[in-house]
Amino acid sequence: MAEHRGPVTSEALARVMRTNPVVIRRVMAGLRQQGYVQSGKGHGGGWTIARDLATITLRDIYEGIGSPPLFAIGNRSNHPDCAVEQAVNGALGASLDEAERQLLASFGTVTLADLSTHFHDRLAQHVPGACPEPDHHG
């Protein structure tokens, strides 16, 4: 969105991210609530970034989208009385908690301005055809 002049529709964002516009609107609503984006309705409407990129970190975005689980593996509580589940949870718990703490701390040090700079550096070295094009049929 930072690279686009003017608002970007949920449909356009969904095409680029290969998802449904409803998913985009749900995610963006959380970011709007935090003041990171704003939206406009009607012709010429869409989403825009509401703050300077240097003031928004990856951690801000992570929290703005509801702090989803960071790891696919983790403690389970499907069968709290199961000795195997208890043993696995006990063995992994502290390590996963520390990994999450470190990752979130790292997220707090990366701003969207940093990402934009890295994007432009890579774009300058971009090889045409290296990235798959968005699927415009789905």
TrEMBL record:
One of its GO terms (molecular function) is DNA-binding transcription factor activity. Coiled coil: none annotated. InterPro entries: Tscrpt_reg_Rrf2, WH-like_DNA-bd_sf, WH_DNA-bd_sf. Gene3D superfamilies: Winged helix-like DNA-binding domain superfamily/Winged helix DNA-binding domain. Pfam families: Rrf2 (PF02082). GO terms for cellular component: cytosol. It comes from the Bacteria. This is Rrf2 family transcriptional regulator. It comes from Sphingomonas sanxanigenens DSM 19645 = NX02.
